[in-house]
Backbone:
């Protein structure tokens, strides 16, 4: 039998739930006999039950955020998952009577600061666990406080603490800092004062049909063994960390609650309800039953109605709608969201130009017909003369922006871009929507400086916003197959995070239809939505299918007009916190672009002076401003020009 893939969190408070699993594995690897106790024996580094009856368990550890990603992307069957991530995923089964929670002060999840919380202007959020971030937002809202919130790594969050900036610190680092700052708000304690209920931070959640009742017993017995070793666990951590052994023992035995009884379930349900009410979580109910047969599973009509009304959908909800939703009902629900967000019946478009300044690229994406490798005779870098002609045409046509993207050309250093941006701004005064996250990362590596420093220098030279190119599908299984040298999904998102925190805005995109699955497309949307919750920096979302051309090295997957409209509609329903969705008529054609306006889109994109990447694969739709406005009018809307921030530049007509 295939092993049961289990992923646990690295924090001290989680050790009692998985430590005996790891101990058994280590004994198996060394050839020592397995411990007795009637529950588990080991073989080949895995824990197994009775021979031939229970699949072995394969355990690995990760930070909470990585754990959630692994479970969502089917790299694990069971995870000690932050409960907010479980609600966001949807359709997971909760294992019985095992959790990490607190009834009152927890000590390891707190906002720490030099001042009282009501005097803070900003709070850095340790992004290790979405649960604690959502809880922070709920508790701040309850106190009617609205400091600026920004995400950071644990170390960066601590480093951010200053006169009027506090930090949300999670897990072991919070124990390390327990007495270091004069002001500390314990989140579990504040929750209990509000609700008189325990707070559940994490629990074992399983993917549908992944865990049998017999396998669930292995987790229960692991918990029993771990709790019997709490004293030793505390002593070992004290020796490593230098913290008080007595304090750590009290933390594990008094602060943390490992049960999942009726009160804990009530606390979990209340948290999910409050998160859903605030628009931070999908509606969810804890269940020990398999979700696909649970009587509480909502109908497709219910999901569509919830989404149309602005409620948040889970990842599982999105997959159901993409796979099973009625084509026309998806369109109606997406159109209802568009009308709710944009009730004046106005569709925007922008007059800009997509300039690909170089086609030389080291990435060699299998789906790209545009790039040329270094040294290729067809490789180019546009001269200032050619660029100037292109930019003047935009200015003469009343354009406001240049979308500037290209390949990863190792001959172009950051000074080249700085000089180019300053020249473009000085001579033509156009907005610069320039350089995808992949290009930003390329410059960071080429120059040996941070992504933030690259963005700071480019911003000082004239960069106004960051396009969402290179996202493809933000799931690394797909990225490794179609563009193995490209940045990872987390790296792409991190560039956007830094840009947003600097005040730059960006678009979000999706290119589907290679080897990606419906589940992976929806996971892409969830990652965009999660970052938007954190930063609010995405102005709009655009999706299109892979444009196959015989010169590329990747066969087409799912595509076509029907799927495009379904995908856009589901994106409109899932991305409740992104204001605008653009119709991708460049790949689908202007007529389909009109229909897309009734499937959730409120923007008709850009006037196409030129387009080189998609057209390299044979797609060559181009129309001007007058034709765009006619298409918008014929679809029953008013038209107006916009800028990159979606400010209206003309009166709608």
Residues:
């Amino acid at each position: 039998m295939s092993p049961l893939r289990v992923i646990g969190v690295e924090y001290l408070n989680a050790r009692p739930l998985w430590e005996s699993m790891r101990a058994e594995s280590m004994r198996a690897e060394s050839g020592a006999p397995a411990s007795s106790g009637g529950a588990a024996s080991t073989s080949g580094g895995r824990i197994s039950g009775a021979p031939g009856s229970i699949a072995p368990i394969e355990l690995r550890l990760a930070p909470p955020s990585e754990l959630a990603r692994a479970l969502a992307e089917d790299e694990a069957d069971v995870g000690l998952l932050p409960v907010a991530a479980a609600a966001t995923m949807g359709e997971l089964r909760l294992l019985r009577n095992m959790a990490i929670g607190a009834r009152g002060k927890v000590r390891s999840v707190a906002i720490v600061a030099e001042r009282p919380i009501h005097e803070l202007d900003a709070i850095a959020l340790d992004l290790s666990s979405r649960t604690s971030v959502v809880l922070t937002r709920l508790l701040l809202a309850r106190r009617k406080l609205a400091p600026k919130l920004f995400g950071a790594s644990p170390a960066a969050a601590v480093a951010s603490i200053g006169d009027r900036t506090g930090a949300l610190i999670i897990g072991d680092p919070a124990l390390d800092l327990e007495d270091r700052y004069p002001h500390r708000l314990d989140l579990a304690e504040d929750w209990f004062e509000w609700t008189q209920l325990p707070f559940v931070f994490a629990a074992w959640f399983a993917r549908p049909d992944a865990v049998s009742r017999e396998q669930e017993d292995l987790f229960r017995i692991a918990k029993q063994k771990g709790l019997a070793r709490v004293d030793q666990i505390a002593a070992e951590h004290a020796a490593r960390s230098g913290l008080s052994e007595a304090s750590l023992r009290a933390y594990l035995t008094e602060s943390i609650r490992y049960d999942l009884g009726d009160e804990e379930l009530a606390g979990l349900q209340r948290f999910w309800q409050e998160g859903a009410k605030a628009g931070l979580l999908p509606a969810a109910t804890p269940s020990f039953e398999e979700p696909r047969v649970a009587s509480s599973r909502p109908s497709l009509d219910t999901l569509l109605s919830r989404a149309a009304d602005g409620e948040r959908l889970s990842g599982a909800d999105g997959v159901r709608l993409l796979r099973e939703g009625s084509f026309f009902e998806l369109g109606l629900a997406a159109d209802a969201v568009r009308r709710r967000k944009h009730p004046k019946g106005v569709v925007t478009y922008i007059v800009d130009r997509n300039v690909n300044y170089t086609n030389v690229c080291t990435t060699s994406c299998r789906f790209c017909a545009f790039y040329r490798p270094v040294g290729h005779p067809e490789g180019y870098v546009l001269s200032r003369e050619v660029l100037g002609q292109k930019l003047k045409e935009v200015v003469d046509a009343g354009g406001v922006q240049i979308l500037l993207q290209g390949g990863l050309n190792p001959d172009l250093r950051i000074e080249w871009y700085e000089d180019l941006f300053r020249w473009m701004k000085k001579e033509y005064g156009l907005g610069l929507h320039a350089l995808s996250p992949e290009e930003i990362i390329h410059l960071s590596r080429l120059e040996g400086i941070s992504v933030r420093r690259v963005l700071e220098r480019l911003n000082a030279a004239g960069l106004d916003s960051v396009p969402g190119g290179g996202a493809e599908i933000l799931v690394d299984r797909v990225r490794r197959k179609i563009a193995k040298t490209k940045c990872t999904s987390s790296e792409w998102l991190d560039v956007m995070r830094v840009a947003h925190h600097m005040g730059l805005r960006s678009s979000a995109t999706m290119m589907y239809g290679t080897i990606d699955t419906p589940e992976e497309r929806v996971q892409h949307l969830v990652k965009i939505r999660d970052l938007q919750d954190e930063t609010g920096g995405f102005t709009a979302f655009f999706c299109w299918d892979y444009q196959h051309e015989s010169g590329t090295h990747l066969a087409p997957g799912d595509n076509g007009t029907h799927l495009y409209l379904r995908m856009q509609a589901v994106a409109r329903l899932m991305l409740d916190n992104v204001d605008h969705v653009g119709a991708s008529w460049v790949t689908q054609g202007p007529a389909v672009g009109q229909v897309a306006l009734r499937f959730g889109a409120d923007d008709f994109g850009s006037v196409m002076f030129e387009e080189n990447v998609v057209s390299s694969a044979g797609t060559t739709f181009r129309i001007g401003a007058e034709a765009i406005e006619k298409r918008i009018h014929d679809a029953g809307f008013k038209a107006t020009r916009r800028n990159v921030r979606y400010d209206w530049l003309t009166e709608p007509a």
